Amino acid sequence: MRILGVDPGLRRTGFGVIDVKGSQLRYVASGTIIVPTDVGLDERLRVILHNLREVVRQTQPDIAALEIVFVNANAQSTLLLGHARGAAMCALADSGLPVSEYTALQVKKSVVGHGKAAKEQVQMMVQRLLALDGLPDSDPADALACAICHAHTAPLGQALSAQGWRTSAARSSRSSVRAGRFRRGL
Question: Could you say which DSSP state residue 61 is in?
């Protein structure tokens, strides 16, 4: 399975592609879409949309993993980041990719082992897990971490769904997994 991870941003959108075979992870590609800041919002979103479509065309992933926007103290910043995330989601959906979504806490916990990890810790673990020669830049590292999170999480979600447990990917089922607890609906 080939996974495209995306870390959306209105100035810099990171992307990372990995191949997964069993428990083996293999690096394919990564980079940063640099979004010009001297143009209007509509043009900035178009740059994200167009470039992510091109990444999908060139790398041919099977699924995408997208980081969920966190709400911070500045509502305007959160709204603008939501626009970038929306452009990314549209590019992925328009390319026919199923999209799984993960919070930064889930990604850090999956890759580093705890949700309060610093960016440098994420970068080092991504380097280690993918056997990279050098430390990846911050934005591609976050995107690769998102893809790794999906690689670690998807098999469990599929197994639980097959057993009748409800996960975020299967909300219509009668069982649920929340906050680390498993629940089976009646």
Answer: -
Instruction: Dump the DSSP string for 73-101.
Output: S-HHHHHHHHHHHHHHHHHHHHTT--EEE
Instruction: Quote the CA–CA distance of 66 and 118 in Å, as a whole number.
Output: 19
Active site residues: 7, 67, 139
Residue with the two structure tokens 């020669």: 133
| Cα–Cα distance for residue pair 128/38, rounded to 1 Å | 37
- CA–CA gap between residue 71 and residue 77 (Å, rounded): 9
Whether the CB-CB separation of 97 and 63 falls below 8 Å is answered with yes
The token pair that represents 99 in the structure block: 């999209």
User: What global pTM score does this model have?
Assistant: 0.84
What kind and span of H or E run contains 158? Answer: helix 138-162
Tokens of 163: 């057993």
Radius of gyration of the chain measured on its C-alpha atoms: 16
Task: Give 65-122 pLDDT, tens digit per residue.
Answer: 998 877 677 788 888 888 999 999 999 999 999 999 999 999 999 999 888 889 999 9
User: What are phi and psi for residue 102, nearest 5 degrees?
Assistant: -135, 145
Instruction: Read off the pLDDT of residues 32-67 as tens digits, 9 standing for 90 and up.
Output: 999 999 999 999 999 999 999 999 999 999 999 998
Strands of the sheet containing 63-67, edge to edge, are 24-34, 12-21, 2-7, 63-67, 99-102
